[in-house]
Amino acid sequence: MELLEAIRLRKTTNTPFRPDPISDEHKRLLIEAAARAPSHFNSQPWRFILIEDQTRIRAMAHIAEDSMRRLMDDGSFVSRYRRYFRFNPKETAKTGSGIFIDNIPMLLRPLVQLVFSDRVGMFLSKLGASKLLGNDQRKIIEHAPMLLAITLDKQEYRPGELSGLYASITLGAVIQTFWLVTTALGMGMQFISTPLEVPENRARVEQLLRIPSGYELVAIFRMGYKDAIVQRNTIDWTSSQRKPFTELVHYNEWGTGVPHSLASARSILWEHSRAGNPAETAPADGDRRVEHPAGASS
Ligand SMILES: Cc1cc2nc3c(=O)[nH]c(=O)nc-3n(C[C@H](O)[C@H](O)[C@H](O)COP(=O)(O)O)c2cc1C
């Protein structure tokens, strides 16, 4: 697969994988490719744990289920993340960001916006939303052939200090490499952040994986080969939309839009996308911040 195609097709896989184990060649390729990422002074502060042991995968699935339920029941999931939820295509297109809840049981459909509002969310959570989401988390993780945990050396990863910022930057480069290589191999991956958001459960995971005190667990993913037949989660979302080019970029100084020639340049990334595939839809052209020839602000 071409690099640009992998970049265009990369997406979060929030559906089950095929049960097949990941080949040793592919595991090795993933780690060796990730290790090509830049790091400050070539410090390579990351260490990886490939988890294929079924007992540990099941334990992680239960910890994730418990985490999701707790975060929903105490309202923190909703209050922390509500601003990212979109409930209809119009809102999704208008913002060009967030996650669009496009799959939800009939029963909850009229209530969907309420489910994700603070106090009502907590109440409805008790009625079943947290149970549904928790079950989905557990099921999808326990059937994954492999989990990947990423840790950072605490000598480098010091939040609040410059090395903490640099360690976060190299972590991002590593994760994007994993994402692109999995895409190229017909695999998928999904972030599992809930266990790291509940301090007690984070400690349980660290213990389960025997992470030494000098390393910080910073990310967990599920990985596997993509299944052609996709069975969606009970409550599910899509997030392929992106903000338009002209909204993302300033020219020479903050607040000045790009020249017309740049705004209307051919899109090499999107010109080969297959029409009709929503995951391959180019962001809508925005004209919000295009500089006018006379220098008038747009
Ligand atoms: C730091 C971080 C945490 C994330 N946590 C989760 C998560 O817990 N569960 C999940 O399904 N996706 C998670 N994601 C994936 C994002 O939701 C996803 O990248 C975004 O919606 C864009 O969708 P795409 O990856 O399909 O393009 C996370 C991504 C990042 C960078």
Describe this structure in words.
The strands form two sheets. A four-stranded antiparallel sheet has the order 1-4-6-5. A three-stranded mixed sheet has the order 2-3-7. The protein has twelve helices and seven strands. With 298 residues, it is an alpha+beta fold. Helix 1 packs across helix 8. It is globular, with a radius of gyration of 21 Å. The structure holds flavin mononucleotide (FMN). The site of flavin mononucleotide has 9 residues, from strand 5.
Q: What would the keywords be for this entry?
A:
single chain; 298 residues; alpha+beta; NADH Oxidase; four-stranded antiparallel beta sheet; three-stranded mixed beta sheet; 12 helices; globular; disordered C terminus; binds flavin mononucleotide
Topology:
Elements (H helix, E strand, L loop, with lengths): L2 H7 L14 H11 L11 E6 L2 H20 L2 H6 L3 E2 L2 H7 L3 E5 L8 H4 L2 H25 L3 E8 L8 H23 L2 E5 L2 H4 L1 H10 L6 E11 L10 E3 L6 H4 L11 H4 L35
Parallel strand pairs: 2-3
Antiparallel strand pairs: 1-4, 3-7, 4-6, 5-6
The site of flavin mononucleotide (FMN) has 9 residues, from strand 5.
